[in-house]
Write a structure and sequence with these properties.
With 90 residues, this protein is mainly β. 0% of the residues lie in helices and 41% in strands. The strands form 3 sheets. A 4-stranded antiparallel sheet has the order 2-1-3-4, with no helix packed on it. Strands 5-8 form a two-stranded antiparallel ribbon. A hairpin with a 6-residue loop joins strand 1 and strand 2. The protein is globular, with a radius of gyration of 14 Å.
């Protein structure tokens, strides 16, 4: 099974940033399937556009920073899987 998606992020006062998610890109290995976008001092992601392998394009808007989001093709954000980041412990 091959997994692929392209995510594009726009944040206030910024250019577009893109991340590609692919599975099966190495021999007996796996890359992290979670794209990470650094927002700097922004408290929200203005817009995230996901281009799925099926050709479906989904747009997510105004997402708070410092959250993990699970996005399901055709269904958008799965709110039951959304959670904040764990605090850093020294």
């Amino acid at each position: 099974m091959q997994l692929w998606a392209l995510s594009s992020l726009w944040k206030q006062g910024s250019d577009k940033h893109e991340k590609e998610v692919r599975s099966g890109d190495g021999y007996i290995s796996q890359s992290d399937l979670r794209p990470h976008f650094g927002l700097g001092k922004s408290s929200r992601a203005e817009k995230i556009v996901i281009r799925w392998p099926s050709g479906l394009v989904e747009t997510l808007s105004d997402l708070p920073a410092n959250q993990y989001y699970v996005v399901r093709e055709g269904s958008g954000v799965d709110q039951s899987k959304t959670h904040g980041v764990s605090p850093v412990r020294n």
